[in-house]
Amino acid sequence: MTASQEYDIGVAGQPWGPAENAQWLARQQIQRSYQQQVLSRLEQVAPGFTRQQYGELDYRQYGAESYPLYAFSNGLAVDKVTVLVTGGVHGYETSGVQGAIRFLQTEAANYSDHFNLILLPCISPWGYETINRWNPQALDPNRNFTADSPVAESAAVVNFLLQLSLPVLAHIDLHETTDSDNSEFRPAKAARDGEVNTNWDIPDGFYLVGDSEKPAADFQQAINLAVSKVTQIAPADADGCLIGEPISQPGVVNYPKKSLGLCGGITDAPYVTTTEVYPDSPHASPEQCIVAQVTAIVAALEFLKSKGY
Asked: What b/e sequence results for 12-31 when a residue is b if at least 16 CB atoms lie within 10 Å of its CB, and e otherwise?
């Protein structure tokens, strides 16, 4: 880790108040369209999948839109196990959103007879449009997947999943790690919280974040093996770490997901992973990142089938 320059909002060492939050929000601009790049593409998904609106984010007070939130599923049959796929928890992580859409368009039908599949392709549409990690209140959805969440994006997902009548066997949460994590989002977080920022080395490649309470090492290994044929698996840094955490096996670190309020801890699924790709790498293209996300989902499903599920 290395120290970084101070962020230019707020006073060093003092957490933000309403004025600083407003100053940050005033900088955020719509840069792309949820309607055109997400919803229009979701009009063509695998046969047998239905769309359900599970919430709406009314952000007109922030100069944006009112965003409908959609889940896609092939039904919940009692004789099939259930797999959850989430994308766009952080809206700026493009391949997570587009990977979920691509899976729905190309691979989902191949597994529809075997699994109950539930996909939430874009949990944070305002973040998608502004290419942002936070929501308009400068809150990170991925630390707020809790029963009493103050973050509307997270609360909508929590409430939706509470309605499920069947347990979830596996959850694949699609993410990216970008250069902007170090140039913008980590410095902004430290300033917001009145802390000193330190930056990680951005891992150059694909890696996974398992759950330290249920690491499922063979599950993670199977996914990385499949993805390694699409793009490189991120090597550990000089300290044997990825994003500041010691690796548990090549290309894998573990976090206590439920206690941190992470999306990956939202269910009691025994098989949980968070994918991370590096779209700014000289060794990968945006298309490779999308394909890597689809490959990870497919590898997870193939692993579950190999275990007799």
From this structure: eeeebeeebbeebbeebeee
**Non-local CB neighbours of 125 within 8 Å, separated by 6+ positions:** 34, 38, 57, 67, 69, 88, 91
Cα dist from 157 to 47, 76, 79, 190, 205, whole Å: 24, 17, 24, 27, 29
Q: What tens digit of pLDDT does each residue of 42-73 get?
A: 998 988 999 999 999 999 999 999 999 999 99
Question: Residue 111: which of 67, 57, 170, 162 has the closest Cα?
Answer: 170
How does 37-71 read in b/e, with b if 16+ C-beta sit within 10 Å?
A: bbbebbeebbeebeeeeebebebeebebbebebbb
Are 266 and 158 within 8 A, CB to CB? Answer: yes
- pLDDT band at residue 5 using 50, 70 and 90 as cut-offs: low
Is 2-306 assigned to CATH 3.40.630.10? yes
- For 144, how many CA atoms within 13 A lie in the half-sphere containing its CB? 21
Give dist(CA 168, CA 267) in Å, integer: 7
Q: How confident is the model over 218-247, as pLDDT tens digits?
A: 999 999 999 999 999 999 999 999 999 999
Cβ neighbourhood burial of 150 (10 Å; 0-12, 13-18, 19+):
exposed
The Cα–Cα gap between 224 and 222 comes to 6
For residues 130 and 279, give the distance between their C-alpha atoms in angstroms, rounded to a whole number. 17
What does the domain layout of the chain look like in residue ranges? 2-306
- Strand 81-87 relative to strand 168-176: parallel, antiparallel, unpaired? parallel
Token reading at 232: 């490189």
